[in-house]
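Students often ask why we bother encoding 3D structure as a string. The short answer is that it lets us treat folding as translation between two languages. Here is a chain of 452 residues written in the first language.
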Amino acid sequence: MSLFSWEKVDPEPGVAVAPHQRLSWGKTVGLGAQHVVAMFGATFVFPLVMGLDPNLAIMFSGICTIMFLLVCNNKVPSYLGTSASFVGGVVAIRAQGGDSADVTGSILVAGLVLLLIGVLVHFAGAGMIHKILPPAVTGAVVMLIGFNLAPVVANTYWPQDQWVALLTATFMVIAAVLLPGFWSRIAVLLALIFGYLVSWLFDGVFGPITSVLGGATEATEHDRVTWAGVKAADWIGLPSGTLADGVDVVHGPSFSLTFILLVLPGVIALIAENTGHVKAVAEMTGEDLDPYMGRAIGADGAATALASLFGGSPTTTYAENIGVMSATKVYSTAAYYAAAVVAILLGLCPKFGAIVNATPGGVLGGITVVLYGMIGLVGAKIWVDNRVDFGNPVNLVGLAAGIIIGVGNVTLEITDDFQLTGIALGTIVVIVYYHLVARNKSTTSGEVTRNL
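And here it is in the second language, the structure alphabet:
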């Protein structure tokens, strides 16, 4: 059977549609659009907070999704949206004076590392992942990546408009938990629309606000919502223009060892995300997808490298789309091809990108205060799901120092020109300390706990 041939089915309500099957093309396109909406909010919010172009990210999310499906032989239904795992590293790069080319160059190298790991997993088996990066370690790394971002919210986004930020965060929490079914899965998108409307209302009622805009050093009076760029943007065209730091939207990468080390810990998070995604899809479809684990990891690495090569954002498999599959029981990869095409078309609409880029800082403050916390808590979820025992001193003591180093942004100066900071140093400490004590433990859990 051809790679692009799907068995057409018309199942009864509640009956699953397998990856190699499809509904009518009309319904398939509709489901594809639903997948785009599900991934939409996070996919363009994270490029914004990384200082990259959301339009380019949306377009490459479609291109990279198609590449992922082809590499996985249409066996693993998945959408590749923008990864949050590199946000902390990107913030650290910019704090040290790096620009967007440094950001995308570092992420490109991380993508190639992930690709290499995927190739190794494909030939060696998925067991090697659990040996080198057991759940205790991956959970700790994901946790410190998320919580390291707290100062970004506190110092950059929240102060721009604290009341809009608080209202947006409140709405997002309520929407994600209390809204029914599909609506809860697009809480980020709904929160963005809500925050936009509140900002527009506040402009009309209270007038301009005086605050420090992102990247500025002094407070200025400004409207919360400014659409001058939207009016000037074309309806159709390739992503273009310049980013806030003066780098072209579409640009080539720049490479620095110091900056590369800052984003490499994100690779561990992507391994955990891809592994969890493949296992979740396997459970839902009832198919053995372990033989495709390496392909999935490698495809995500190649996609991240490809997007970064042109100035785009890193990618990862999206849990939001797993939610859509769980709700609809339609696992057809044809729907993901339809979603990818819709995303590419959106990416070719500069006016859409201008609307996204005009998102008020207070709205981003409300959204990121929830999203960054969720990233950190995903680490805790990895621990819970895998029943990591913190009565065992290997887990309790072995991970402790690295988490604090990562969250507290501790710096180790190795030379005048080279240092390890925050996420990079914390990740190294977590891995080294864990395996150091795991291989040489000689004290019982009870004795260590009593001594503590």
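Translate back mentally: Residues 442-451 have pLDDT under 50 and may be disordered. Keep this in mind for the problem set.
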